[in-house]
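General statements about sequence and structure are easier to judge against a single worked case. In the encoding step, the backbone of a single protein was reduced to a row of integers, each denoting a local shape. The record that follows shows the chain in one-letter code together with its fold in token form.
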Amino acid sequence: MTGVKKINHVAVVVADIDAALAFWQDALGLELHHVEDVPSQKATVAFLPVGDSEVELVKPTTDDSGVAKFLAERGGGMHHLCFEVDDIAAKLAEMKAKGVRLINETPIELPGRKMAFIHPKSTGGVLVELYEVT
């Protein structure tokens, strides 16, 4: 069985990053590391480190993305939980063999990382991302 190393991040969908920072940064006291445009996800993301993990505030940049649909239907909130793994391809194969419904059967490769999503119907309702640092 391949290992899960840690929670990499928790992604929270927001309509307005600056407004959301009023809680996450000003009230809770997390430090904003940086804000980045992520075209592959059609989003702008604010990164707030917490120990070895981070909170990501995700704002959609288009109306046709999954994040935009989530925001329109739910009004924001926790979008997904991301686990860092040793070997994402092996973990996906292992989970598929156990009958887990995968959104991505093979990892999406981006500079410095690979990622894949597990369908919420297999996780009790939570969108789960697997993440491998390359």
Observations:
- The chain has a mean pLDDT of 95.
